Amino acid sequence: MTVDTTEARPIPAADWVTIPDLYEDPYPIYQRLRAQAPIHWVPAVNRYLVIGYEACHAIELDQQRFSADEAQSLMKRSMGHSMLRKDDPEHDVERKAYGGVLRPKAIKQRWEAVFDRNYATYAARLRAAGPGADLVAEFAAPYAAENLRVVLGFSNATQQDLQRWSQTLIDGTGNYADDPQVWAAAERSSREVDEAVDEMLPALRAEPDGSLLSVLATSGMPLDSVRANLKMTIGGGLNEPRDALATTVWALLAHPGQLASVRSAGRWSDAFEESIRWVAPISMYPREATRDTELCGMAIPRGARLGVVVGAANRDPGVFADPDAYDVDRPRKPHLAFGGGNHFCAGAWIARASVVSIALPRLFAQFPGLRLAPSRPATIGGWVFRGVLSLPVHWD
Amino acid sequence: MPKVVFHHHGDTSTVVEADAGSNVMRAAVQNGVAGIVGECGGQAMCATCHVYVRESHLGALPPISEDEEEMLDCTAAPRDDRRSRLGCQLTLGEGLEEVEVDVPGAQL
């Protein structure tokens, strides 16, 4: 499809936007940008930030015009060239190689029991830490990490390894400030993951266990791709459930009326979906324009590096009324927190099973009087990846 | 050109034409048909393109794959053992020139 761009509006520049301000709280920035246009050139991050829902959604569904395979990708540098930075048909081949590992049937047959066991382990750890404990450090992070470790098949690593790998590889992917220490840590983790993958593949070929590595070991996927896809999955597979869980707990504790409604009717799914709309754990991802084109009436040049800010799209007042409010009763509309189109989050069902079906209902049942620590407020940060960094809680 | 009729609650319907090789989900999304989301782009991964196929067309449908089968257990609206399908798995064209479906009350 050829698009005539002669009538399109130019894209405004927002040179006042800074990375520290985005990290601190991006939402007022998006609000100010949104009043002017759905797309802006933001020199601080060297990208066009796409913040409108319609524009973000259009990009997700159009890989001909907006490629995931961007040049000079920070993610490729940090993690290698995973399927997340490929278009179809190359992406599709690798996606299909994941098979049923992350799908509902395997979750029911295999992973629910794992999540169950891990809930018990880390709920006990939270309890042992005592009232005032940080729910992220003592529960959400190790629970998400141990679940992921088992699903991926790293019997030669610990949940602490998974946490370190995930954080440092993600930090590399979001290293817009080009900090050399961040790159050094990401490179170290990348080597460690390569070694762990290389060690596990022959073992799992000999004794398959239904894990992702086990399935990939016999899939014919080239080793470089296995390594890159594992790193991508370590990144998204840990922080998404960790942050979705912590943000949902934080939101419910901050809104006791909604918590009461959620508890009485078991509406944990509503609470979860609204929290990832409200604060999308993966808030921005890149695309590159393959040609001069037009989006929402604005001219985008060929080769433009775009940031698809789903965290902003999820607060577009044209789609979600009173978008800055956490509201489990708002009409259900598709949010973009799991992405859309061919790159729709492969772990969506794993996140829902581990967080909605197991962690949320049990935490609130087994920690009566769970509440925010009065003198130590939760800390929240990030814009490429955003979540609750610490969540001190008390219980009776 | 293949044709899809989407019946909505309250007796309204939307008729759309689509290219052979397209599918019921894509036909809906490209034409802005209300009530079909299609989040995952057609990988039988999200269960948001759930439709109830009308009886007279059931015989023309392809069999339900393993992936579609597990996803049909994850739909927001109740599954109908005979009529529930994922729109993305219903390829239009040869053998399915026309199909009529009821759009469920919820996809999310």
TrEMBL record, chain A:
Pfam family, one: p450
Domain of life: Bacteria
Keywords linked to the UniProt accession: Heme, Iron, Metal-binding, Monooxygenase, Oxidoreductase
A GO molecular-function annotation: oxidoreductase activity, acting on paired donors, with incorporation or reduction of molecular oxygen
Keyword 4Fe-4S carried by entry: no
Family: Belongs to the cytochrome P450 family.
Name of this protein: Cytochrome
From TrEMBL, chain B:
Matching SUPFAM superfamilies: 2Fe-2S ferredoxin-like (SSF54292)
Gene3D superfamilies per the UniProt record, alphabetical: 3.10.20.30
MF (Gene Ontology): 2 iron, 2 sulfur cluster binding; electron transfer activity; metal ion binding
Superkingdom of the organism of origin: Bacteria
Keyword check for S-adenosyl-L-methionine: no
Pfam families given in the database record: Fer2
GO BP terms in the entry: P450-containing electron transport chain
CC cofactor: [2Fe-2S] cluster
Family: Belongs to the adrenodoxin/putidaredoxin family.
Protein name listed in UniProt: Ferredoxin
Native source organism of the sequence: Prauserella muralis
